[in-house]
Structure formats: C-alpha cells, structure tokens
Design goal:
809 residues; alpha+beta; Rossmann fold; Dna Ligase, domain 1; 8-stranded antiparallel beta sheet; 6-stranded antiparallel beta sheet; 23 helices
C-alpha cells in the first residue's frame, strides 16, 4: 500500500491496547512511522510502541473523554489526526472521541445501533433486511411468551457480547429455561470484557445456514476491499468456531449476494468509513446478517487477508482514520495463498496437563502462524464454564484441499491433553440435571486447581517469575509495638523479594472482605502467609490459611489444623503428654471453681491458654502460694476471659529451636538460640513476659537482663542433641510445615521441657528464625526463597488438603 513516508508527522490515538495478542498491531503502527498515543487504563506491555499515554479507564466514557481533552489542552503542540481501536469493548468510546474531535469515524448514534444486537435486529426489520424473529428477555416471565410465539430452535445471546460468549442454541421449552438461567447468572463483564456496555439478553430464532465473515474496507460510503472467510466446524450449542478458510468456497452467486447484502446494510445504517467485520449466514433463502462489528476482526483475520490477497487491514484502518484516499482493490481470480486455520479447543474445561509440539513443525513450509496462549498447569475454561482456548494455527496450500491436507499434517505434530478437575471428593463425578448445572462453581474450582497445578510444575529457574502474595496485617505508624512489628514483617518480605525479581501484592487481613475479594480475583501464584490476626484477634489466625485453602491458593507455613491446635495450649499439652514429650507438669482451669492438681509444686506460672506474643503474661504470672495462684487464675479467666494454663515453673535457660522443612528428608534444625537469665534484677522471675518483648523495661534489655546467645556457648553436644531431637519430635507430632520454632526450657540439671510450638513464628528480618538461618549461610532473602522452595516441594509431594485428610485419619 502506501510507504511509511505518507504517515510522517501524523499522530494516531489508539483506544485500548487490548491484550498481548494485539502486539502485532502496534508493531505495524510503529513500522508505519506514526506518532502513537494510547488511551488505556494503565501502562502495560505496549510501552515500547507508545509515544504518549493517556491513562483512563476506557469503560468510563466520561472520564476518558475528559482525559483526552486534558491531554490535548496541556500539550498544545500535539494534534491528533485520527482515532482507531481494534478492541470490541471500545467501539462506542472511539465513536464518541471522533465525534468530539471532529475526526473521521463512525458517529456514535450509528455505532450504538450496530453494537447493540437488539437495535441491529430492529434496524434490519425496519429496512426489510432478512432477520429472524427476536425479542429481549427481561425476566423469566418473557420465556412463556417466547415459547408460544417463536419457532424452536432458538438462540440466546448477550445484546453487547462478542466472541460467541454466552451465545447458546436452545432446542425446546425446557432447555430455554435452563439456558436463560445459566446466561442470567453467569453473564458479566469479568467473563467477557465487551459486556461492559450492558448485560441485556436477546433471544432469536435459529438461522440455519453456512456461517461466514465478510471483512470490508469502507471509505466515503464505498467498498474499497472485501473478502469472505468461511467459518465451519462450529460446535453447537455454544457456537464454538474451530476452523476458518480463505478464500471462501461458496458459489460466486452466494458470495455476490453476501457482498450486496452487507453493502446495503452498511449504507442504510449510515456507515461511511471503517474496517468492518460483518458476520452472516448463507441460507436457502439468501444471506442473513448476524451482526456488524465496526472494527477489524481478531486472531487470523489480519494475516488471512494479508497472505491471501496482499491487503493490509491495519494500514487500511489507519488510512481511513487519517483521510488518505484508498484505491478500490479487486481481488484476483486466484489468491496468493489458500489458507485454513484451526483453534485448539478441548472438549471440556480442565487443566492443561500435557503439551507436545514437535520442533520440526516450525520448519514446515506450509505453516503460516502458530500461537499458543496457555502453559502446562493453566486452566482452560470452555463452555459452559468459560470461553477460552489453547491457541490457534494456520497453514497454506496450493488449493483448498491441499490446505486441508497440510493442516492435518501440522495437527499431528501438536498434541495436548486437558484433564478434568477431580478434587478429593465426589465433586464433578455425579450426574448433572443439565449441562449448565454448577458451571460457575466448576469454573472457580478449575481456576483454583490450576494455581496448585502451576506450583507443582514450577521449575527452579522459574521461581523468581512467580507472583507472590503477602497475607499480613498492616497498621498505621502510631500503633503499639506488637502492631508495628506485624506491619514490618510484610514490608521486610516485600523489600527483599522485590529485589530478587518477584512481583509482590499485599493482602491486608485487617480488612477481611477486601482481602478476600482481592485474593479471589488475583493472579498470585503463591501466598506468603504471615497473617497473625483477623478481626483484631489472634484466635482467628488459622482462618487465614483456611481462606487460602478454600480459594485453592498455595501458601507458605502451616495448615489451619496445626495453627488452631497450637493456639490451644491445653490441647498441645495433652498431645505432648500422650506422646511422652517432656513438658512441665501442668493443669488447667476455666474458672476459680476448677480444682487444680495438688501435686503441682510451687512456684507455678499461670498463662492464658489461647494467646500469643506473651499477651497476658507478666512478672506476677509466676506464683508461689495458693492465694497468688487464685489471683492469677481469676485474672486470666475473668479479666482476659480465657482458660488458664498452670505449669510448674522451670528456672533455667530457655532455648528457641528453629526448624525448616516439612518432609522427613528436608527437615533442618537451625543453630539454637539460648536465653540466659542469670543477670536479671532481683524480684524478676526468669521468664519472657509481655514487657520483655514489647516494652523498653531495662530489666529485660538484651545483653543486660537477658543474655541471648546465638548459637549457644559452652553447651554440651549431648544436651544439644537431646534438645534437637525433642524439638523435631514436637514439630512432627504437631505437623508443622515449612518453618517453626519450638520453645524449650532446661532445669538446673539440664533436663529439657517443651513449653510450646509456634508453627508460623514471626519472620521479620531481626526475628529468631531468620537470624538463626544466617548461621548456615542464608541471608534474609535466601531464607525467604528457601521457604518458597520448600512450599513448592510440599505441594508437589502431597495431594490437595493433605492436612485435612491426615487430621481426619
């Protein structure tokens, strides 16, 4: 067509980049030498092709128009010469912008009529263009009228949809109700972005005939180029198109009738300029329009037209927008190539488990294009769950039959396998009353299962490409020390993982509804679960892991069963006692009326049985007589409203045993951390109360009152081994995952006693577990990545919800 010199100094506004699949369009626009301005919600993959961005949500037409005006007002030297879009969602916005700027395009009042399938059907009927009987479905009451007045089969479709999304054939009255119910419940702009213009539903009588696409370049009301593409192997009832061929094999008289019908329809609509993707059917009574899309067709449309007829539709779109005259192009008798394409669409929704593409296929002289959009482990949602596909391929030949044979040869070199989602239950195995039952649920199950499948299959060299979520608690800077520490952990993780190339997203569980919704919609691959509170309560900490389980999002750390068990110190004591793990002699009370074991020897320590971070533990928690014991039990049970755990006080050193791993062969005990209390001031018991962790009380200052040795000094190998073995037994009995910390006290004779296990201990940069990891050569970033690797390994080696199955057993 025209050389790039013709576009020198011209500026084009592109409305919406679309997905990465549209990259070839921007590459072509850049090659033409245009100055490119993109109106888009955000900057994205198109940055290298873009001279200027106008950032606005294109679904909000008012703000988008304001953003364009503001951009031009702030840059008086820039003049927009044309406005184009290749994205169905933005046909109407593009018309509004061309109207506003007085540029060449399709006026909004005309675009609205074509874009709205109901208005288009009304237009066809008013202008005596063949059209089926049709109606809007506004409620279930309309179904009875349709059943009586319309002839089956019928087709239900969205008024503003595209790509056959939610277009369903209906064979009878019963099917009508089920189909309407399915479309009504599932239709949304999230499922199909083109539906952002509205969610109305249309029903019409089924048109029986051969389906085709007519691609037209229209300038000043005259067709300058037209090409017909055959659509065949359309799978009903969902109208899933699987193959296309160019040039059309229809008889010349049918092709001529199609072109005349399309030209008449566009003329009566008032469309003067544009690249039109016109869909129609050829019936025994002549051609019938389906819809007129006022933009270039997607996928193979551009390459088909270019390779068969040497017509560049992208350049045609630009010429129309800029007002550059296009000479009428008449297709030759014989095309440059005969082409056929095939979409890879599995029979059912599932997870891509296998994809084998013979490398030699790329050397096949007849292969034109091969595009694969999915990776192993990705979900593929086909009707009724979704409207996706694996990718597509196109091949050429010397004639239609040759092209078909060449396609068959290429398809033999591309093998894939999609497996149905089959969780550890009867879900998906029972028969359904109709094909739409539980479609939305199955869709969510598949998407979640795919996240787990992706983690199972990720290789070491792909780990830093993962999108990591951080489930945490974020507080303002003026909060107490505990809250400040919780905030810092999330920021520490974000900083060090970002430095290593990971994409990070926070999920603040202080706002649970927001966190849940964001998680459900997110594309995170794995979540670092460092959430310690929900509704400001540490008792609900296990539910963060439960939420991640229900959303099928892989996460670090222990499962909800272990987390809830370890919060309940009384149950832990019972379990340790059952397994003969040494622990201080103990008893518990729910009120002052409960009798305490008289064999317990003073001093005793009284703790809240369901709290963490030493909350509720003070220097007064250690008691030496019955009166003090009753005082502390009353304080815990009545003031703190918790059960009280009473233990014999062990006056000796305390050891923190940090452990990493989940499997028998990857468990590692990190160098021990030892707390020595010998220099504590008189009157202070040798414990870690709340003040020691969260206040500036000098009595507990590290190195003064409490000496922390990491690793311990002058400890015998026998004692070190004994502490290690007891800690490992505790870790395994309580089924801790990935990392944890066991607290052990030794008495004056170096007899060890387990105090508790913290299954998801604090892992801020200065905390005990990462600090211990430094002694084996893991800096903080290495430590975090090691947790990620162990989490991945755990998901690879164990089935989903392993922890629940194990706890039930």
């Amino acid at each position: 067509m025209t050389s790039s010199d013709s576009y020198s100094g011209k500026t084009i506004l592109v409305v919406n980049t679309g997905s990465l699949k549209k990259k070839y369009i921007l590459k072509k626009l850049r090659k033409l030498g245009l100055t490119i301005i993109i109106l888009n919600k955000e900057k994205n993959w198109a940055a290298s092709y873009t001279d200027h961005w106008i950032l606005a949500d294109t679904n909000d037409h008012g703000r988008s128009l304001e953003a364009v005006e503001s951009f031009l007002a702030s840059r008086p030297t820039i003049k927009i010469d044309g406005v184009i879009t290749f994205w169905e969602d933005d046909v109407l916005l593009t018309s509004k912008i061309t109207d506003k700027l007085g540029l060449i395009g399709i006026p909004f009042k005309i675009a609205k009529k074509a874009r709205n399938k109901f208005l288009f059907r009304e237009f066809c009927r008013e202008n005596k263009i063949k059209t089926p009987q049709f109606a809007l479905l506004k409620s279930y009451k309309d179904l009875e009228h349709v059943s009586e007045k319309f002839n089956f089969p019928l087709v239900i479709k969205p008024v503003h949809g595209s790509s056959s999304a939610f277009v369903v054939k209906v064979e009878n009255k019963d099917d009508l109700a089920n189909t309407y119910n399915y479309v009504k419940k599932n239709i949304s702009s999230a499922a199909e972005s083109a539906l952002s213009d509205g969610l109305e539903i249309l029903v019409e009588e089924y048109i029986d005939g051969e389906e085709v696409d007519v691609n037209i370049i229209l300038q000043n009301g005259k067709i300058k180029f037209a090409s017909i593409v055959d659509n065949y192997k359309t799978e009903e009832p969902f109208f899933v198109e699987t193959q296309w061929a160019i040039p059309s094999s229809l008889p010349n008289k049918d092709q001529q009738a199609l072109l005349e019908m399309a030209e008449m329809a566009l003329e009566k609509l008032g469309v003067q300029n544009g690249c039109i993707h016109f869909e129609a059917k050829v019936t025994k009574d002549g051609p019938v329009p389906i819809e007129a899309n006022l933009r270039m067709g997607g996928d193979e449309t551009y390459s088909f037209t270019k390779e068969a007829w040497d017509m560049d539709l992208i350049e045609g779109v630009v010429k129309i927008a800029l007002g550059i005259y296009i000479k009428k192009i008449k297709n030759p008798e014989i095309p440059r190539r005969y082409l056929i394409s095939h979409d890879f669409i599995p029979e059912f929704s599932g997870i891509l488990a296998k994809l084998d593409i013979d490398e030699n296929v790329k050397k096949n002289e007849h292969l034109e294009e091969l595009h694969i959009f999915k990776k192993i482990g990705d979900p593929i949602l086909v009707p009724p769950e979704g409207y996706e596909y694996l990718g597509w391929v196109s091949v050429s030949g010397n004639n239609p039959l040759d092209a078909e044979d060449n396609l068959k040869n290429v398809l033999r070199s591309i093998k894939y396998e999609v497996v149905k989602f089959d969780p550890a239950s009867s879900m998906g195995k029972t028969s359904r009353p109709n094909r739409f039952s539980l479609a939305a649920m199955n869709k969510d199950l598949l998407k979640g299962a795919a996240k787990i499948e992706k983690i199972k299959r990720v290789s070491p060299n792909e780990e830093r490409k993962l999108h990591i979520g951080v489930a945490c608690n974020i507080y303002q800077d003026d909060q107490m020390a505990v809250e400040s520490d919780l905030t810092t952990i999330g920021k520490d993780i974000e900083k060090h993982l970002k430095e290593r190339g990971y994409k990070i997203t926070f999920f603040d569980f202080n706002n649970l509804p927001k966190a849940f919704n964001e998680l459900a919609k997110s594309n995170v691959d794995l979540v670092f679960n460092v959430c310690e509170r929900i509704n400001n309560s540490s008792l609900l900490e296990p539910h963060a892991a439960s939420i991640l389980d229900t959303l099928q999002i892989p996460y670090t750390g222990s499962n909800p069963f272990t987390l809830s068990l370890c919060i309940d110190k009384i149950r832990v004591k019972k379990l340790l006692t059952y397994h003969n793990i040494p622990t201080p002699k103990w008893d518990y009370a729910y009120s002052l009326e409960d009798k305490i074991d008289e064999n317990l020897k003073y001093p005793l320590i009284v703790k809240p049985a369901n709290s963490d971070n030493s909350i509720g533990i003070t220097n007064d928690s250690v008691v030496t007589n019955q009166k003090e014991l009753e005082r502390q039990i009353k304080k815990v049970t009545e003031e703190l409203n918790q059960p009280a755990l009473i233990e014999e006080y062990i006056d000796g050193d305390e050891y923190d045993v940090s452990i990493m791993g989940s499997e028998e062969d990857d468990l590692r005990v990190l160098p021990l951390s030892r707390s020595v209390f010998d220099k504590m001031p008189e009157g202070y018991w040798h414990i870690y109360p709340f003040d020691a962790k969260w206040t500036d009380n000098p009595a507990y200052k590290s190195g003064v009152g409490i000496i922390v040795q990491r690793p311990p000094k002058n400890i015998s190998k026998n004692l070190e081994s004994l502490i290690t073995e007891i800690a490992l037994d505790t870790y395994n009995i309580l089924d801790c995952h990935d990392y944890g910390r066991v607290e052990i006290r030794v008495d004056k004779n170096n007899n060890p006693y387990v105090l508790e296990l913290n299954p998801n201990p604090s892992i801020g940069i200065n905390d005990c577990v990462p600090a211990s990891a430094e002694f084996i050569g893991l800096n903080y970033g290495d430590f975090l990545e090691e947790i990620i690797r162990m989490t991945i390994r755990r998901y690879k080696n164990r089935p989903p919800y392993y922890h629940l199955q194990k706890s039930i057993i």
